[in-house]
Specification:
Quinone Oxidoreductase, Chain A, domain 1; 10 helices; 2 domains; 16 strands; 7-stranded mixed beta sheet; 316 residues; alpha/beta
Length: 316
């Protein structure tokens, strides 16, 4: 099968053996692949391995211990080695595509965000009806999905940051009640104004870097800050006094250190809460670019420039 691997000389299209599913895995004929920033990280840390984390396709083989899947099912899921004509994943990382109207590209744009953001908001952030939620980096595909989850699960107020005026204006279409201009100095004051001085109960941070202290300043007393992404940098000055005075919880999340059983639990909790959203064909994520599979390098270059709004997808 054709696959893209990360090498010291960049992305390379090669022939690799079709994977053989373990008893707890499904084998899927890939129809679309979601392009994510983690793919750039994989490419920068070349290891002669197939890159990619998110996909949609048709089940062609089901392991003997799998539950809930049959050959021919249209599915979407996450797991390593997605930039390939066939993928395998643990049955607990995939779900059937709930509506026939959902095309392959839309299905390949949802699962990583659903799993990540439900875990960040609900399991780690302890989202409850009536909470105020701040999505830092709201114009990213992750941010758009996260705001829709917050709205669906009863958040009283959803705030989203973006430094781009055009993108910020679009946020209201994806569950955002108040758009915040993160290019303004001291933008956390706008969050406090919108929440009558209280601040956000939960801050999901897709940016980190030098903006993090503003996230803390925008949080409510005893608020939860959940770090999902580090687009603004993995290191920065940290205001320990602000952290202590507001009695904040700072929580990091990633898939890279989770066991198979933990991901199964994460996925099942997401499904339990978001069945209605999925049944309605959601979440909604605009497709910013569709690329033929052999144009994967071009898609990654587009991702690197950060000029798009929505999801970039490879189609097979």
């Amino acid at each position: 099968m054709k696959s893209f691997i990360a090498t010291t000389n960049g992305l390379r299209l090669v022939d690799t053996p079709r994977p053989i599913p373990k008893p707890t895995e499904i084998l899927v004929r890939t129809r679309a692949v979601g392009v994510n920033r983690i793919d750039l990280h994989s490419l920068a840390n070349a290891a002669d391995q197939i890159i990619g984390m998110e996909w949609s396709g048709e089940v062609v083989e089901v392991g003997a211990e799998c539950q809930g899947f049959s050959v021919g099912d249209r599915v979407m899921g996450t797991g390593p080695a997605a930039y390939a004509e066939y993928v395998v994943t643990d049955y607990g990382r995939a779900v059937p595509i709930p509506k026939a109207e959902v095309d392959w590209a839309a299905a390949a744009s949802a699962m990583l965000g659903l799993q990540t953001m439900h875990d960040a908001l609900v399991t780690r952030g302890r989202l409850r009806s009536g909470h105020a939620v701040l999505m830092q980096g709201a114009a990213s595909a992750m941010g758009l999905i996260g705001m829709q989850i917050a709205q669906a699960l009863g958040a009283r107020l959803v705030l989203g940051t973006s430094g781009n005026a055009e993108r910020r204006e679009k946020l209201k279409e994806f569950g955002c009640d108040v758009g915040i201009d993160s290019s303004e100095e001291g933008w956390s004051r706008k969050v406090l104004e919108a929440t009558n001085g209280k601040g956000a109960d939960i801050v999901v941070d897709n940016v980190s870097g030098n903006a993090f202290n503003q996230c803390m300043a925008a949080a409510a007393l005893e608020g939860r800050l959940v770090n999902v992404g580090r687009l603004g940098g993995a290191t920065a000055a940290f205001d320990f006094n602000l952290h202590a005075l507001r009695r904040l919880e700072y929580i990091g999340v990633t898939f890279r250190t989770r066991t198979v059983e933990q991901v199964r639990t994460l996925n099942s909790l997401m499904l339990a809460d978001l069945q209605r959203m999925l049944a309605d064909g959601g979440p909604r994520v605009p497709i910013a670019g569709r690329f033929a599979f052999d144009r994967a390098a071009e898609a990654l270059d587009t991702m690197r420039r950060s000029e798009h709004f929505g999801k970039l997808v490879l189609e097979l």
